[in-house]
Automatic annotation (TrEMBL):
<feature type="binding site">
    <location>
        <position position="103"/>
    </location>
    <ligand>
        <name>CTP</name>
    </ligand>
</feature>
<dbReference type="GO" id="GO:0015937">
    <property type="term" value="P:coenzyme A biosynthetic process"/>
</dbReference>
<dbReference type="GO" id="GO:0004632">
    <property type="term" value="F:phosphopantothenate--cysteine ligase activity"/>
</dbReference>
<keyword id="KW-0288">FMN</keyword>
<keyword id="KW-0436">Ligase</keyword>
<keyword id="KW-0460">Magnesium</keyword>
<dbReference type="GO" id="GO:0015941">
    <property type="term" value="P:pantothenate catabolic process"/>
</dbReference>
<keyword id="KW-0456">Lyase</keyword>
<protein>
    <recommendedName>
        <fullName>Coenzyme A biosynthesis bifunctional protein CoaBC</fullName>
        <ecNumber>4.1.1.36</ecNumber>
        <ecNumber>6.3.2.5</ecNumber>
    </recommendedName>
</protein>
<feature type="binding site">
    <location>
        <position position="174"/>
    </location>
    <ligand>
        <name>CTP</name>
    </ligand>
</feature>
<feature type="binding site">
    <location>
        <position position="178"/>
    </location>
    <ligand>
        <name>CTP</name>
    </ligand>
</feature>
<dbReference type="GO" id="GO:0071513">
    <property type="term" value="C:phosphopantothenoylcysteine decarboxylase complex"/>
</dbReference>
<comment type="similarity">
    <text>In the N-terminal section; belongs to the HFCD (homo-oligomeric flavin containing Cys decarboxylase) superfamily.</text>
</comment>
<feature type="binding site">
    <location>
        <position position="113"/>
    </location>
    <ligand>
        <name>CTP</name>
    </ligand>
</feature>
<comment type="function">
    <text>Catalyzes two sequential steps in the biosynthesis of coenzyme A. In the first step cysteine is conjugated to 4'-phosphopantothenate to form 4-phosphopantothenoylcysteine. In the second step the latter compound is decarboxylated to form 4'-phosphopantotheine.</text>
</comment>
<comment type="pathway">
    <text>Cofactor biosynthesis; coenzyme A biosynthesis; CoA from (R)-pantothenate: step 3/5.</text>
</comment>
<comment type="similarity">
    <text>In the C-terminal section; belongs to the PPC synthetase family.</text>
</comment>
Length: 237
């Protein structure tokens, strides 16, 4: 058994996990980023390695060190993350997109540091930053798989309930829209999830199985529950 008391049920499996928040540069010293700590994705990579998998972690910005026994590929932007995930997914048995991918990036990158102007006639002058859409990496991985059933593809969604639906309803709609096999939905809000060590999620499945709740528990325990759901769905080796 591994440290969590589970058998090496992922032995021989190739696992590809993305984690952390992408950073979209404006100039050599500035970027647009997000509050993802990367903790849940890193915990998933560590748990999979402990259960015998061969793990590659494609890591954008994270607050936590990469686990030992895991191959780590560092990226900064959504476009870099897309290139690494797209190249590696065909060799994987399962792909987990736990990274917080910026939906938008600055339309222009300035090669030199953006400076204030010093025009006495317009002392409050400020630039306007135009944004463009980043590609949807997860949807691209699903489309690139074509009719094949491998790799199994797992998405993440951070949702808040609102007037148009509950957290689970938004999650179900996102699962359909993305076309992935499983979607891990976590509830976010002030003080919830971002940077915290505990998490509460529901694992939604497209195969009609009931949502599997997990937590509140440590991100490591949540990770093990996610692998418990993934394991039996992997095509036999
Ligand atoms: N994702 C991705 N590429 C993007 C944005 C998101 O691959 N450009 C992935 C995330 O890694 C996650 C899943 O898609 O696994 C859902 O991310 P989320 O931000 O919740 O979904 P969006 O489609 O961006 O929808 P929203 O407008 O609610 O942010
Ligand atoms: Ca998004």
């Amino acid at each position: 058994d591994g440290p969590a008391g589970r058998a090496a049920d992922l032995a021989g499996r190739r696992v590809l996990v993305s984690a952390g928040g992408t950073r979209e540069p404006l100039d050599p010293v500035r970027y647009l980023g997000n509050r993802s700590s990367g903790k849940q994705g890193v915990a998933l990579a560590a748990a999979a390695a402990d259960r015998g998998a061969e793990v590659t972690l494609v890591a954008a910005s994270t607050d936590v060190p990469a686990p030992v026994g895991v191959e780590v590929v560092r990226v900064e932007t959504a476009l870099e993350l897309q290139a690494e995930m797209t190249a590696r997914a065909p060799q994987a048995d399962v792909v987990v997109m736990a990274a917080a991918v910026a939906d938008f990036r600055p339309a222009e990158y300035a090669d030199a540091k953006i400076k204030k102007t010093h025009d006495p006639a317009d002392p409050d002058a400020a630039p306007t930053i135009r944004l463009v859409r980043n590609p949807d990496i997860l949807a691209g991985l699903v489309a690139g798989r074509g009719a094949a059933t491998a790799p199994l593809i797992v998405g993440f969604a951070a949702e808040t309930g609102d007037a148009s639906g509950s957290v689970l309803e938004h999650g179900r709609a996102k699962l359909e829209r993305k076309g992935c096999d499983l979607l891990v939905v976590n509830e976010v809000g002030v003080g919830k999830t971002f940077g915290q060590d505990t998490n509460m999620v529901h694992v939604l499945s497209r195969d009609g199985a009931a949502p599997v709740p997990a937590g509140p528990a440590s991100k490591r325990e949540i990770a093990d529950t996610i692998w418990d759901v993934v394991g039996p769905r992997l095509v036999s080796a």
